[in-house]
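Moderator note: this is an archived Q&A kept for reference. The question asked for a predicted structure of one protein chain; the sequence and the answer are reproduced below.
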Amino acid sequence: MRANSSATVIFSPVIPTPRSGRPGGGLWWGLLGVAAFSFTVPLTRVAVAGLSPLFIGSGRAVVAAALAATALILTRQRFPLGLQWARLAVVGGGIVVGFPLLTSFALTSVPASHGAVVIALLPAATATAVVLRGHERPRAAFWLATAAGAAAALGFAFAQPGGFGQLHWSDLLLLGAVVAAAIGYAEGGLLARELGAWQTVSWALVLAAPLMLLLAVWTMIQQPPSGTPAQWAAFAYLGVVSMFLGFFAWYRGLAIGPMTQVSQIQLIQPVLSIAWAALLLGETLTPTTLIGGAAVIACAGIAVRVRLRPTSPPPRP
């Protein structure tokens, strides 16, 4: 089957093989992507202090889509074929529409340290989405390390000032953002093996651009944006790096794989996010953060070292 074959279906049992690369190359690319994403929560918190959350969630996607369209045109990329467009819609719905909008609204009422709960749950959610997608079957040791890492990440994130609290609408928005991003990551990682890493996120951004542009224009009419230079700088980072450049590295890492292992690199993202929140927003950085961060990183290291159970080849027709 060709890379751009229209016979590729959304949930086909035929899964593209991982891209070749250096051993552990997927982990290093994933780490680079996570480092870029780790600023997303604290900088979103900075931006929503003066800009509308709907404008931030939609406007950052419009900025990224403009960059994506330019890159696709300049490099003369071939159009996706057939049901690859439907799969791109799944990716766009998760990472372009769902995650940015839901987190922007949630972070209007909770601190960045609380928002790190989203990142703490993403690795386990992404690994689950990959397994449900029918691609990889990790051993039990992997799931034990994943569960321990998620528990450690949640524990230390909730232990931060502002971390505790009763379940309310912001927590439900954060949970929805986790589900949306996990689905987008899993499908995008598979599609990146066919279209390429940066091409996948670029086409997903272009596909979602009309909706996000409509939302951005509508919110600008309703509430003209007015922010400080720092808030606009945070918005620029969210559009250029969080929504565009960061996915270059992240999807390349997922494409090299194994996806379930690379996804566990995200376990260190809440550690970095809370550290940036302390430096940029003045939120308290306590010894609990250091201890919890060490536990999270240790669990991530165990998870990525667990070898996947070899999969049997599909039966011949």
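Archived answer notes: The longest helix spans residues 229-256.
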